[in-house]
Amino acid sequence: MNKQKKDIFENLFNTYYKDLYVYALSFVRDEEEAKDIVTDVYEYVWKNFMRLDASASLRPLLYTLTRSRSLDFLRREKSKEKFLAYQRTLPEADEEYEEHEELLAKAMRVIENMPAQTAAVFRKCFFEKKKYQEAGDELNISINTVRWHITKAMSLLREKLTGEEIVLLHTLFVKK
Amino acid sequence: MKVNEKNDQLEFVLNVLNHPELLQDEYVREWLSHAENKKLYEECRLYLEAGLKLEVGDSVDVRREFEKFKRRMTSPTRVLYRWTAAVAVVVILVASGWWLMNEMPSRESGREVIVGMRSAVVPGKNQAVLVTETGREIVLGMSSGMRVMEEGGVNVTDDSTRGVRYSGTEVGEVRYHTLRVPKGGEYRIVLSDGTEVWLNSESELRYPTVFTGERRVVELKGEGYFSVTRDERQPFIVVASGVRTKVYGTEFNVKAYADNKVDVTLVEGKVAVKRASDDSEYALTPGQNAHLEAGAVPLIEKVNVHKYIAWKEGYFYYENERLEVIVNDLKRWYDFDVVYVGSGVKDLRFELWSGRDSDIDVIMGLLTKTNRVSVRLDGRTLIVSERGK
């Protein structure tokens, strides 16, 4: 591999590694696995670099591979059975990933600017893998308050991202 | 999935996102097959991704990952990581010529043995028991990411696919726990310092709930693969059958099923191996295995690392290995007893490559096909006999 190609590859690694890692992590929720998946993706690209069209953006390929390998991992995690329900609908065009990155950036801004208590609930339920009850216990609030904050967080995100109010509110939260 | 969770779609989605292994559940799959549900799932995943991106922030050292990647692309052990989960099974009899298989043993003779072999003998799974200092026993492998206990400021969470994890920042009181993996099991544990240990079937690890003092010492019975978090000031020591393996941060395998025999295989980094009985210390370099046997000079040699750590990657892998050694590993995983008929049968040598999730009859069928042994199951007893010469 010549120097120029090596530089392009290194640049690809530096530019997308973190994004792909987070992308994989959002599927598999295991840091070690997510790293392995992204490394595998880069290994594939490295090995096939000569054949890949360097003029085209490699971003869709990187994302597509990361996604399909994450799903492959989840599929064989416990059984060989395939989970057909999750059809892979893979965006092919680069613009879709650009859009994806824009959405992410918007969502990040919303999350950063959430009211403190809503942010705390959001963080417990989304990242710390807590159930509503557990999150409530840890924050000393009732499960219904947890529910309210999560709905609020979703509503803030939706409004900014799609301009849509959270309309599913009532169907989503059927009281027991 | 509990019924009442159905009432709250959002909590349901979050639970699936947080425990992706649930995607295997029939109910979850059915639920996701509806377009609007999948949309909600994707939407929440996007928010999660955004949040993780903030959360992970600059903690990912891309430069370091790139260095690691370059090393991996030039390392001799990397082939291993590319083994896929696709189950491939290869058995070649080594004892009397590699190509004996070409003699094409009749299919009927193979099938004859396989008939009626469907039995209670099944591959192992993620299971273990956690024993606390007070003797309380907690069965692991039942939940997905739930806290199973809290003791002295240390949280213990358990997840059926990811294993048990110790975390907690406060330096509480040190307690000793034991993770016991039965026959037919394996389990992963993350210790309080972030060190990961994969325990093989019929193995035990005793460790403190937090590491204090100058050293991190754990005791192993059976087999474990260690990925030790680097800490130059606090060496990590594995004690197994009178052998101490000292490391600062590295990956290695320790196999110590017998009281007087230990194999330490180094994958990455550096370790020092020392027997309790003498003062000599042996340093290993990656790719080396130290075989220590009571009363013998330690044997340190370059080995095919895959052979020693294949189990951790989900494989059985042997090259030119004695049948007894192979069967001993199989019986720990599938949980059966064994009877050998014929004096030389244990010493026949085979090459075997098989997924650990293969049915035992697949492996039995292949052994049989070599035409050197016949293998059958009688209840939970495997009867291995020499074929007529």
CATH-derived topology of the largest domain in chain A? Rna Polymerase Sigma Factor, Chain: A
Tell me the span between the first and last alpha carbons of chain A. 63 Å
How many domain units of chain B? 3
Number of strands of chain B: 25
* Quaternary structure of the protein: heterodimer
Structural class of chain B: alpha+beta
Indicate the low-confidence ranges of chain B by residue numbers. 1-7, 76-118
Brief sketch in words of this structure:
Chain A contains eight helices and no strands.
Keywords:
heterodimer, A: 176 residues, mainly alpha, Rna Polymerase Sigma Factor, Chain: A, 8 helices, elongated, disordered C terminus, B: 389 residues, alpha+beta, Phage tail protein beta-alpha-beta fold, Jelly Rolls, 3 domains, 19-stranded mixed sheet, 9 helices, 23% helix, 37% strand, disordered N terminus
3D architecture notes:
The complex is a heterodimer of chains A (176) and B (389). Chain A is mostly helical. Chain A has 2 domains: 1-93, Rna Polymerase Sigma Factor, Chain: A (Orthogonal Bundle), CATH 1.10.1740; 114-176, Orthogonal Bundle (Arc Repressor Mutant, subunit A). Chain A is 71% helix and 0% strand. Chain A is built from 8 helices and no strands. Chain B is of the alpha+beta class. Chain B has 3 domains: 3-59; 81-121 and 312-386, Phage tail protein beta-alpha-beta fold (3-Layer(bab) Sandwich); 125-308, Jelly Rolls. Chain B is 23% helix and 37% strand. Chain B has 9 helices and 25 strands. In chain B, the strands form 3 sheets. Chain B has a 19-stranded mixed sheet that branches. In chain B, strands 1-23-21 form a 3-stranded antiparallel sheet. Chain B has a 3-stranded mixed sheet with strand order 22-25-24. The radius of gyration of chain B is 23 Å and the shape is globular. The N and C termini of chain B lie far apart (57 Å). The relative contact order of chain B is 0.12. The interface between A and B is large, with 64 and 54 residues.
